[in-house]
């Protein structure tokens, strides 16, 4: 069969060797099957990922490591529960909690602190499940992901700083609300931050160069896919490395802060945990405001 009159939108048969699929130009795409089968991103605005943008994405993870809302908030909250509760071996409210069981009136009845923690975590999970079912698709589609990330980040900031106002055991209900909201803010920000890295990798200069070679027939799809996979793995692994190194510095500073405020009384312990939560928000805000602005404003990622 003579290929001399083949449409220009297909590459030549010779270049199709090596498992390379025919690549159509944008005008030839007229059905969803073609769109999803293409190895190349062929719709939407494409902007090359810059080095500054990649490092902004890395450093954001130092702030959004969960130090406050995920790691220390639960300690601050459970500390309030134990200080507000009583020992169930004695009449209600007469003997403070010791090393054994500890009860409190919560969710309509008297419950152990362990039961309260389990119920609260279940409620937090349920809220997150409903929320992500509604808006989870925006992590991969559309242009509002950076704005959603910002909203979750601001929520986590506000909750972390609000712990400074919850240092009295009588405010354990407020602590419960802050704990739930903090988890939602942290998990939401982390989810939408994580969803950015495939787009960042796809628009790296070397990946876009490989796409052009694939379109010209100078490389095959297997080689292109391997390069794309390695780029994604590199971004993910370096982000974990940067976060770990950053956290070493953050925790070293935190140790000095705690040394200055802690002593043997329970009130000091409560205050210290509140300071830790607020401190984590300060680190997060600095990493976002001064280093990651370029990433948050590039809404194509």
Automatic annotation (TrEMBL):
GO terms for biological process: amino acid transport; autophagy. Belongs to the ATG22 family. PANTHER family: AUTOPHAGY-RELATED PROTEIN, AUTOPHAGY-RELATED PROTEIN 22. It is found in: Endomembrane system; Vacuole membrane. It is a multi-pass membrane protein. One of its GO terms (cellular component) is vacuolar membrane. Vacuolar effluxer which mediate the efflux of amino acids resulting from autophagic degradation. The release of autophagic amino acids allows the maintenance of protein synthesis and viability during nitrogen starvation. This is Autophagy-related protein. The chain crosses the membrane at residues 57-77, 116-136, 148-166, 178-200, 235-258, 278-297. InterPro entries: Atg22-like, ATG22/LtaA_families. It comes from Cryptococcus bacillisporus CA1280. Keywords: Amino-acid transport, Autophagy, Membrane, Transmembrane, Transmembrane helix, Transport, Vacuole.
